[in-house]
Amino acid sequence: MLLAIDCGNTNTVFSIWDGTRFIATWRTATEHQRTADQYYVWLSTLMEFQGIEANITDVIISSTVPRVVFNLRVLSDRYFGTRPYVVGRPDCELPVDVRVDAGTQVGPDRLVNTVAGYDLYGGDLIVVDFGTATTFDVVDTDGAYVGGVIAPGVNLSLEALHQAAAALPHVDISKPQRVVGTNTVACMQSGVFWGYVGLVREICNRIRAERGRDMKIVSTGGLAPLFQQAETLFDTYDDDLTMHGLTVIHKHNTGG
């Protein structure tokens, strides 16, 4: 079985793939101090609690936080007896091309989303990922990653607003009932929600215009379901996009 690990700036997701489906998925806070032993105790406890007996033979890792990769590699080697594939490393090949400026390092999560998007939905695609940052990844007709856009994440923007303006409270993001708020919290929620709706729509429209073609828009990430409520902003929402991409990359490298 395959253990797929997606390490983001805020959370790290572990999923077990049995070759046809994910039989379990767990999420934990990303902490670079966490050791391989701590990862294993946490993971094995959850597996035992849910009655999951998985013979993990392969591991693949995508990480936007370089400092955690070492301990995840030790976890793979020490407890599962296998050398993990790490997206972005030379020995982990991608099934699609990456066409960006020479010397540019593309985030592994964006490459994985590109692979998954092309595998599931074909080319001419925009993948919008609502993570710590809000990213837009452009997938060409042949599946190649050809660039994108990075904007501040929704929660990051709210936290910055709270910290920079002493009178403004910390609020949770939600879809407001009206655009015009009648209290401070409602005003902030409206500004962030409709502000990001406008940001997403405008960026996607400009990408389409620049590419000179219609493009399907796929959303993913923690806050994607919230913005899925905003009219017809996306063509589809896919919660498992990144994890699916990891299975496709693993299959490409192993021929499985």
From TrEMBL:
ATP binds at residues 6-13, 132. It is found in: Cytoplasm. Its main location: cytoplasm. It catalyses: (R)-pantothenate + ATP = (R)-4'-phosphopantothenate + ADP + H(+). InterPro entries: ATPase_NBD (IPR043129), Type_III_PanK (IPR004619). GO terms for biological process: coenzyme A biosynthetic process. One of its GO terms (molecular function) is metal ion binding. Pathway: Cofactor biosynthesis; coenzyme A biosynthesis; CoA from (R)-pantothenate: step 1/5. Keywords: ATP-binding, Coenzyme A biosynthesis, Cytoplasm, Kinase, Metal-binding, Nucleotide-binding, Potassium, Transferase. Its EC number is 2.7.1.33. Homodimer. Belongs to the type III pantothenate kinase family. This is Type III pantothenate kinase. It comes from Allosediminivita pacifica.
